[in-house]
Specification:
The chain has eleven helices and ten strands. The chain is of the alpha/beta class and 341 residues long.
């Protein structure tokens, strides 16, 4: 093979000659999704945008904990309904994803993840989804066990699982290894504990988490295929003590590299370049809103156009302007910013 035999999209200058930088050639699916496939989704906040589009499309989108009858979309989103395929909220790290799968198949509860305040009990693994708490520890545990049952059903029924990787930084219990979705003390000072430790995953750890989760899920669902994405959203804050820009760059590089390792070693896995379309696209150097974190609607639209143009087995439905109240992304990381105000 020589460079002369490569397609035009392999050359930066030839891509620049095209008004759209030949982005139509950016995504050639290895995992194709058809209307017969049961699709499940999870991940960091940006995954909500992908899930919302899939719900509107012809995809058979799984939702094992649907919005209760009569609840408004805005309230439902605030309580974790209608965001993903089950009510687990945002899953920021691969360690958190692996833990959820392990707990679901083992029916395992983590006693250290429940905390009490003013006589009410809370689930630290879903800290924002039951803001009113439970009147007893037993009720909190029963709600978690019911949730894990639905998560297990989701993993068993899915044909394609879409996971958006968001962060390498995480907080965990030094005694048990339990991984929390966000710094417990930022959720509530009453939930803080001296045993809670910060950890920033390396590439090898992220790869190991993903491999373990893929292997576990395929033991229960041998034909399960995976489509990975990396969130383009920068970190709200870093616990490294360094600059948030460097922490963001490092985190995304680790996650993107880990996905590439998985694609080399694991069959029936694919990657959709939402991260590159938002952050590396030379035709769009202004992809973020005023806070420089939220991806602009026009950019999300371009990302989803690329997805559905390549996934020809799915028919996309464009949301009518103003349709639904839950378009705003629910992001737990805002709690980190609030701790400095």
């Amino acid at each position: 093979m020589s460079y002369s035999s490569l397609p035009s999209e392999s050359y930066w200058r030839r891509c620049l000659d095209d008004p759209d930088f030949q982005l139509g050639a950016l995504y050639r699916p290895r995992v194709r999704i058809g209307p017969e496939d049961a699709v499940a989704a999870a991940g960091s906040c940006f995954a909500q945008k992908i899930g919302r589009e899939l719900r509107l499309s012809s995809a058979r989108f799984l939702d094992l904990e649907p919005v209760p009858h009569g609840m408004t979309e805005r309230t439902a989103a605030r309580l974790g309904f209608g965001l993903y395929s089950a009510r687990y909220g945002n899953i920021y790290s691969t360690a958190q994803w692996l833990q959820l799968a392990q707990d679901a198949f083992a029916d395992h509860l983590r006693p250290e993840a429940f905390w009490c305040k003013d006589g009410l009990w809370f689930d630290g693994l879903r800290p924002r989804l039951e803001p009113g708490g439970f009147v007893s520890r037993e009720l909190a545990k029963a709600a978690r066990r019911a949730h894990l049952l639905q998560v297990r059903r989701m993993f068993e029924q899915a044909s394609v699982f879409i996971f958006t990787l968001g962060l390498t930084e995480r907080w965990q219990d030094a005694r048990t290894g339990t991984v929390y979705p966000i710094c417990p003390a930022a959720v509530d000072p009453a939930f803080g504990d001296a045993a809670h430790r910060f950890h920033n995953s390396r590439v090898t750890e992220v790869v190991a988490d993903m491999e373990a989760c893929i292997n576990l899920l395929r033991r229960h669902n041998s034909g399960l295929r995976f489509l990975f994405t990396v969130s383009p959203v920068p970190l709200m804050a870093t616990a490294t003590g360094g600059h948030v820009l460097l922490a963001t760059s490092r985190s995304k590089a680790v996650l993107r590299t880990a996905v590439d390792e998985i694609l080399h070693d694991q069959p029936m896995c694919d990657y959709f370049p939402s991260y590159e379309l938002a952050t590396q696209n030379p035709t769009c150097r202004d992809a973020f809103a005023a806070d420089q974190r939220e991806v602009k609607d026009a950019v999300v639209e371009r990302i989803m156009q690329a997805f559905f143009a390549a996934q020809t087995g799915l028919a996309r439905q464009i949301a009518v302007k103003g349709q639904g109240e839950a378009a705003e992304t629910v992001c737990d990381e805002v709690l980190l910013d609030a701790t400095r105000r």
